[in-house]
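Student: Send me a single protein entry containing the residue sequence and its fold in token form, directly below this note:

Tutor:
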Amino acid sequence: MAGMAENPLDLLPEVLLAASAVGGLLLGCWLPRARQWPVAALGCGAAAAGIAAAALQPPGPAFGGAFVVDGVTSASRVVVLGGLLVVLALSVRPLAAHPRQSEHAVLLQLSSLGALLLAGSADLLLLAAAYLLASVPSYVLAGFGKDAAGTEAAMKYYVVGAVLGIVMLGGIVLLYAAARGVGYPALRAELPGGPLALATGGVVAVSAGLLFKAGGVPGHFWVPDAVQGSAAPVAAFLTTVPKVAALAALYRLGAEAVAGAGVPWAALVAVVSAASMTLGNLAAFFQQDVRRLLAYSTISQVGYLLLPVAVVGRTELAQPALLFYLAAYALTNLGAFAVVCALPGLRTIDAYRGLGRHSPALAGALAVCLLGLVGTPPTAVFLGKVTAFSAAVDGGFAWLAVVSAANTVASLFYYLRWIAPTVAVPRAAGAGPLVPAPAPALVRSAAVIAYAAAAGSVVLGVAGGPVLALLETP
């Protein structure tokens, strides 16, 4: 009876997105196969309404405490739904007149719905259900094109996800055995008095599943192939939306369930952070395919984003640092992928040679986004990295901040490898194959999104103070 008294409006953004996905699926059955764009438009409307609802909704527990509306949930909702809006917009042109355009939009919405639930989960069973909802549509999206590369990407993505999903479920069993409960308040109360080995094993296993969704070590193996083999809008989605939700869920696990349990949380996350940023940067150094380069870049970014997660409970800077960095990363990463979507015929770094002469604004947007991912002022990621480094130092992990700073400097090399050809003069006749001008193949709608993302990254970096103050809300 207590469940009957629960208010569904506590999950209004999630309800709106679920209704849009179901409505879009039904609408797609009636629309002509060559004109299914209204389904994507419906999804955009639901995402925009969900952002407004998330900004206005008061904090508090929902559905018996299984879901929590707080600062982490609200910020994650805004970033996830904003990312969904961008990806839906990027997908409209490439999928125009596609017979399965409606299914593509619905799959994006369902995966985003799983991400929203993942970010607000305060119960291990809901966490597992959200993991599956966020994952299964993503596997289909990775192989949506039904070509050889997409099929291989989907298979690798699915296999890694299935294995680590089972590991995650095993971790939930261990935590239940240690605490006799699955809700985070019960875990926080009972884990300190339970067997430490069970608690540690459970936390490691659950974290492995969440790190798969984030694309960090040890669940990072799927990222390069899935990003390279998927369509560019899908690659933008996979490297942004699930990552935001998984890192928010990992932060909540450490803050609300593991605190005081005696589990070496900080040390475990710190090691994963250092491994992710170092492996991602080393693998990205000599990549030629731009999507694969961005894939390894996103693995390295997980390392930086894990800094505030490692020091949760040790410093008050952890929450605003993580949430601001998530928003900054999502905006900048989507901007870089928007450039890739705007130039679908250019797959390698050298193919971008001379872009500055043909499309100087687009080359400028690419440079802003790539330098933003490095953490160059005055971009938003710069402020995000500064706050993350400060949180690490304040939380007693100065060595991790030093490792992060060294990796940041090293990452400049491969981002500049991509920027340099855009400002170079195209090859002259007789000096090698001429590079065709990318301007005729320019997708204007994606280019506009790239301009907006690059400008937004700079604006958020310059005006980040008030946003950080807002994110300090418990």
Q: What stands out?
A: Residues 148-179 form the longest helix (32 residues). Residues 265-474 form one domain. The first strand starts at residue 60 and ends at 62.
